[in-house]
Amino acid sequence: MKFLRMLILTLAAAAALLPFLWLLSTSFKGAEELFAYPPDILPQTFVWENYSGLWNAVPLAGYFLNSSIVTAVSVLVNVLFSSLAGFALARMRFRLRTTAFLLVIAAVIIPKEVLILPLYTIILTMRLDDSLAGVLLPFLVDGMSIFLMRQAFLSIPREIEEAGVMDGAGPFRLWWNVMAPMTAPAMATVTIVSFIVAWGDFLWPLVVLRSPEHYTLQVGLSYLTGTFVDNFRYVAAGGILSIIPVLIVFLFMQRHFERGLFSGSNK
Amino acid sequence: MFFLLLFSIVPMLEVVWFSLLNYSFFGPHEFIGAENYRRLLSDANFWHTLMNSLLYVLVTPVLIVVSLVVALSVRDAVRSASLLRLFFFLPVITPIIVVGIMWKWIFTEETGVMNYLLSLAGIGPVSWLTDHPTNMVSVMILTVWRGFGYYMMVILAGLMLIPKEIEEAGVLDGATPFTQVVHIILPNLRPTLLFIFVVSSASAVKLFTELYVLIPGVPMNNKTLVAFLYRQSFERFDFGYGSAIAVVLFLLTAGLSYASIRMMEERS
Fold it and tell me: What is the ipTM of this complex?
């Protein structure tokens, strides 16, 4: 049994990692080696040219900057707003609360893919097409994040809220000082998920953006696969570079993220 | 809330309204009732892409089995479990465009590493990208690779819900690891697996970007509903017709999504 388990884990880890290593190895290969058959596992001569070549061929820094702006804004707004809205939905009594919650549910179940067309016409009338603001605006507030935060706030015991109120905390202080810190694992989940989604988003930016100087990294990369069909080395280098930011964020937050995922089920 | 209203409810209503119009980007629009839907029913590409989108749901059982097997194996491996979870999660965090690029390179037919490895075993060469339905299998492989780490995490969370005593009692009763899984773990894991089934099926129906990178050049009848929607709306600018496709897509996935969020609510 133990052997079988080790075998499964080794195979799964190899399956998960090998495509990455293959991409990494390709990104260091020279032009003549690219289509070598049988393929070389490691580059025969280790070259950095693909990275510098890519840098010269496309406005890579611009792509990175655009993706960073989109990601930073959408993660920040999302974490802050979903926490506020989640708190209000879980802990405050107000008219139309049920309606507001139904609205959140509706927003979750309507697929993004269904909405791209009307959203595009809205963005057109706002004259935000071909701009980062147009990429950002429709998805700044995310139903799923609000839903997750609401669940997190619901799970905080009543006594804590009462103790806060006894100490004279108003709703805002109750949220900021008392309760929001207790939802840290859920916030980590929202942060990571919205980071992954914003950084990797493709369909919507593809629809909105037209000029290369506005491209996000993913849109830029997808055009690169079209233009450099026979220069896969550049594309490989670009792919490797675009993984690094998500990897760093995930490494920083893995512990909190897993605690959020696993703690919800311990209750 | 105003935001959600403006950017999800209003456009949803708009999409339904557009689908009843003869609305192209360039021309005037006029009300034509169910004409777009009638046109859909007689459009061979609609039926092909609808069928393909539904066929991609076949990826779900494979995903569940793989994730379950890996989750059960990783659960008791105390040493380096965190590192292993990181490895399995890497494909999940990687941007989908990069995943597509990676696998396109692996599946490349003349010089790709996949066909090379298969040739060592005396198989192939397989036309991973150009043959239909083989290219669907390629997309499914990519989907399983990208998804199993996430669903493994969900299953691990579900496994923690099973009280330790039940499993210990099973061991005392002389249950082998296999009967343990079949009689104790699987029944207790049913809500979790059902949740995964619903989530994974909904995302299988919505596949698009994977195909956009992996098999861009194939004819429309090899593709999916979202690809068809994209073509009609943003390449042909036939907004009315595109909206009718979007409404069909909504009807296909809304039920699944609603079920998944209800399950999430019950769990906490």
Answer: 0.89
